[in-house]
Structure formats: structure tokens, C-alpha cells
Give the backbone structure.
Amino acid sequence: MLEKIDHIGIAVPDLDAAVAVYSRLFGIEPTHREVVASDGVETAMFEVGESRIELLGSLGPDSKIANFLVKRGGGIHHVAYGVADVQLALDHLAAEGTQLLDTAPRPGAGGRLVAFLHPRAAAGVLTEICQPDPSRPSGDH
Amino acid sequence: MLEKIDHIGIAVPDLDAAVAVYSRLFGIEPTHREVVASDGVETAMFEVGESRIELLGSLGPDSKIANFLVKRGGGIHHVAYGVADVQLALDHLAAEGTQLLDTAPRPGAGGRLVAFLHPRAAAGVLTEICQPDPSRPSGDH
């Protein structure tokens, strides 16, 4: 059901500085940057194999990563797995008793439909599942 | 240079319990379990696309994940990228001024040669690079 690692989300206190670090590490520039206003974050994506590294900068104290940055100073925020159909996967997981944070897919970065599982459902790891959103451009190109 | 996400290492307080959680989540059993005595850990590997999820249990208070478990209770410990040649990659990174924890490859889990970069070199993320070790079986099959 979980087909691949779609991306790893890394929360950073300074997005421009982190983009410079990862550009040197990977030897490539990010494929795109994007503000996800609903989450209060700006993202920068790097392609690596079939996956991506998603750097996440906070746009303010109410963003989805603000508390994480205060507590941890930065680091890996979540892991996202690619699935064929987020709603089907959510229904399957819910039927198994998996704790979910989202019960329906919502728009995420990179033209994806996304949903989050509770960290308790994945040994303490905030876990996302996602699929391309056919109604939006991917933003990857 | 970094060709793919080879694996994500997740430190867990109870390896058997975490294996049960991820077996249900992925719908598959781990491909293998292995003690890495030099790191004081036992690992269980799950294949997902071209990558793996590596669950890490601690074998004692001196293990490489013991402090992390005390501080965090568990979670993502490191990310490993696949490279063609770890020593060449280390030399390249060192020449660029990247902070390294290992300056030469050493044996890791799953028949890999591995080396770690300092978290400061990757925006706060403990980062490994690895390659198959031609002198050892992979243990994946």
C-alpha cells in the first residue's frame, strides 16, 4: 500500500541557509519553492532518486512547524509515503484501528493530496501519505 | 553524488513492538533482522520502493542510540543516502569543508559500507552515506 518514500520533511530555522547547505550537499538546486499558506510554511524541494527532500521554513508563530522549531531547533519533521489513493489508504488504516490526524485528503505542497497519521501510529514518527492531485499542476517542473 | 534515499533509521524503545506496527502499516514483514554489535543496536529492515525503513533497537546503555532514546523516547534518528563510492564521496565532502563524523567507511547493517556526516552539515539532520560492501553478503535476501 505504501509504495515508496515520497519525501522527508526537514524543518529549518532559516530556509535560505538550508537551501544553500543542501544545494552543495546534493550538487543540485531545488526544483521549486512554494508557500503552503494553510500550513504557514514555505517549502523548497530537492529530487533524490524516486524521492524528494522537502525543506520547511516557518512563516510565523502559528505555522505547523513553529512548535517543533522552538522545541528542537530543527531536524526531520515528518516522512511521507506515496500511495495510489489517499482516501482508500485512510479508510483501510482507520478500519485497522490506526490513529489518524486527517480522515480525508487535503491539498499539500508539490501538487499533492496529503493526509497525516498520528505519530503514535508509526513508532513516534509523524507520518504522511500522499498522491499526485489530478486537479492541480505538480509544481515540480 | 547522493543517488537515492537508501534508508531512514528510526530509533524505537521496543523493537518487537515497532516491527509489529510497521508490519501492519506496510502490509509486509521485515526482510531481515540483524545485530550490529559495533553500534550496540539490533535492526529490522522493511523495503519500501527503492529505499528501506530501518528500525533500531538499543542493546544497552552504551549503544549509539541510547542517548537519543533517553532524550526523545524514539523517532527518526538518521537519514542515509546511497552513493557509488563512500570514500570518494567523503573526500569530496571534506574538500568542500563539510563536517564529517567518519573520515573512512566502516561496516554497517545490511551488508553496507557506511559513514556519517555531522548533523551541522545537513541542517540539523544526522546524515549517513552508504554503498553495498562487495566483501560481504547484503543480508537482504
Notes: Residues 5 and 81 of chain A are 5 Å apart (CA to CA). Chain A is about 20% helix and 35% strand. The two ends of chain A are 27 Å apart (CA to CA).
